[in-house]
């Protein structure tokens, strides 16, 4: 993994850029998976992402499996799981480069049913970057054999640390505007 710096969990942190963001190092699992707000208390990714790394060519690689709790049809993943995990993993590509971003657009192709509790792989790369916009794509495959199960592409927009404070202020304004109604 082409990384420097060590986080609280003892796992290597991406590029050491976090100091520059003014934000604390995001928590990571032993497999290097950055945890979102909902998974921090658990200390594990509830979507079943087990390992994450950036390879030498700048492609992010994930090892994952669909937990039984996300079963839709018999023994296959709910499409919402597939879309959620693609959103999450594609959005980790900027994070692995030390850049904060949010999903602006996401398109998912459900190519084949995704089996639950089977080893899967996900490759994620940037098609291009234009200003604050990252055009990112990815492909989910069955680990043994490499059959393509799903593809996704989308646009991520880089944000600074004021994003959530700005949102909170906007929400407060919305609540205030409706209180008198
Ligand atoms: C600071 C961001 C950090 C992101 C997280 C990264 C790291 C955190 C650290 C560790 C985390 C660990 C692991 C990662 C875990 C989670 C990652 C979370 C990522 C997400 O969970 S991803 C969720 C789904 N994705 C969204 O949730 C995006 C909602 N969509 C927008 O945020 C905008 O759409 C945007 C930015 C895409 C458009 O950007 P743009 O450049 O095309 O256009 P523009 O700036 O003009 O905004 C157009 C209109 O959105 C308003 N607007 C913009 N920013 C705002 C704000 N902060 N609050 C309130 N309103 C806002 C403007 O006021 C204008 O509104 P209006 O049209 O009414 O004037």
From TrEMBL:
One MF term in the entry's GO annotations: hydrolase activity
- The Thioesterase domain is annotated at 76-145
Q: Where in the cell is it found?
A: Cell projection, Ruffle membrane; Cytoplasm; Membrane
UniProt EC number: 3.1.2.2
One Pfam family hit: 4HBT
**Signal peptide stretch:** none
Q: Keyword annotations for this protein? A: Apoptosis, Cell membrane, Cell projection, Cytoplasm, Fatty acid metabolism, Hydrolase, Lipid metabolism, Membrane, Transit peptide
For whether the record's keyword set contains Lipid metabolism, the answer is yes
Identify the domain of life: Bacteria
> Which biological process annotations from GO are given for this protein?
fatty acid metabolic process
> Which stretches of sequence are listed as region Disordered?
1-26
UniProt-listed PANTHER family: ACYL-COENZYME A THIOESTERASE THEM4 (PTHR12418:SF19)
What is this protein's name? Acyl-coenzyme A thioesterase THEM4
Q: Which organism is it from?
A: Streptomyces asoensis
């Amino acid at each position: 993994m082409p990384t420097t710096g060590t986080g609280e969990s003892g796992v290597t942190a991406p590029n050491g850029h976090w100091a520059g963001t003014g934000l604390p190092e995001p928590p990571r699992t032993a497999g290097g998976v950055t945890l979102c707000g909902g998974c921090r208390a658990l200390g594990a990714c509830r979507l079943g992402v087990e390992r994450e790394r950036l390879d030498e060519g700048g492609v992010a690689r994930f090892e994952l499996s669909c937990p039984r709790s996300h079963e839709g049809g018999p023994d296959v993943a709910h499409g919402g799981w597939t879309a959620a995990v693609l959103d999450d993993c594609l959005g980790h590509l900027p994070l692995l480069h030390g850049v904060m971003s949010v999903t602006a657009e996401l398109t998912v192709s459900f190519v084949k049913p995704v089996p639950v509790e089977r080893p899967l792989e996900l490759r994620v790369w940037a098609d291009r970057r234009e200003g604050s916009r990252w055009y990112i794509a990815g492909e989910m495959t069955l680990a043994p054999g490499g059959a393509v199960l799903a593809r996704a592409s989308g646009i991520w927009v880089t944000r600074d640390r004021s994003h959530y404070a700005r949102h909170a202020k906007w929400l407060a304004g919305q609540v205030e505007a409706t209180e008198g109604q």
